[in-house]
Write a structure and sequence with these properties.
Keywords: Signal. The protein is α/β, with parallel strands linked by helices. It contains 14 helices and 14 strands. A five-stranded mixed β-sheet has the order 11-10-12-13-14, with helices on both faces.
Amino acid sequence: MIAILIIYTLHLLPKPGAKQRTEEPPYQSDLPDVMKDSRGNVFIDYHDVRFSYDNIAKFISEYEDDFRTFTNYQNSSKYLIYNCDKRCGGLGDRLKGIVSVYILSQLSKRKFGIRMSDPKDLQMFLQPNVIDWRITADEIKGKEHLYIDFKELHQQFAIEMENDDIDPANSIARVKPVDIIFVKANQNWFSTYRKLSVSPDRFPIIYKLPTSDITRIIYHGLFKPSDELQNLVDDFFAKKVKDKHLVCLHARMGEKGFERYSFDDIKLALYFLKHYDRLGGHVIMLATDNKQVKDYAKKTYTSLVDTEFSDDFSHVDHLGSGSVDDRTKEHGFMHAVLDHTILSRCSTLVLTNSGFGVTASAIRHTSDNLFTFPSRSKSVIRTRREVVREIFQWRCFSHLETGYVCDG
């Protein structure tokens, strides 16, 4: 019997004298080659693009070009606006919602906008890129509008859209089609969109690429770093990383009462990083919401580096409280966006259970040296961008009448 082995050939460093691979767009190079070993056994070999910080700009330019192939409805008189005024979830949840609402704007043929004021204006950190998603008050003044909270009603949205095969250009989950629709959302609705009869014509790419690749294209089409954020990222790599390999762990422990990992659990992932600490030529960065983990890292790793925002991490959704001053809100939001941006640019990335890390891996340009640490696995697992979301999918329910299972 021919043994079929799935082998992920992801190397930490190129071997001396090894010929470097020609860089290709990740969604091309991620396609596996069927090969045979010396014994004639068939195996599947993934030729991942080697991570290169220097080539990030080239890849982003390609994603921007891909985004430009989408139909542009920005001159439409009807609007679909991602809305976040309070309690929208963490940064990862917000980005999932933005991507979902953008695709819905394509399906509904509406102009896409973003209005995020909580805890601070999103434009302070991420600015419009290929399209201008900013919406002014004068632009929509006097037009009929409504607000929909699909953060709370995401199951209902998906079930109704799928059951009735609703054309979003005529109705969005049985909501009358007024000129301005504000939507709060924090879910990934790719599965629902792929089941609608209008999708092949209006957004065909959703059938051609995995969710992670489409997320990456939309993210880079919508956003570019603010000057301040870009300067912080450049400064971090120039002064802290230099010519070394950046190894990152996102250790999302969870708030009291909602713990995702205990300190004993996370120790295995922390031990995993010791290998890189001893190798030389590597620096280690931790993004975490837990002081005990941070203190442990400071005592354990000789090659630990951090950004200027090395204080305790504050969850973005908790910064919207009226008791938090503006400076703390701005500092906390920048801390989150900076960590997220750097995680997407780490040579080696280890993820725990968090939408923050899932989206960081999605916008990364390769699966090279990507690992996950699921809370129940008790091991650090080499993985691929395309499956990270499913590994950490959270709280999915089956609907008795429809068999519907949420995207998460």
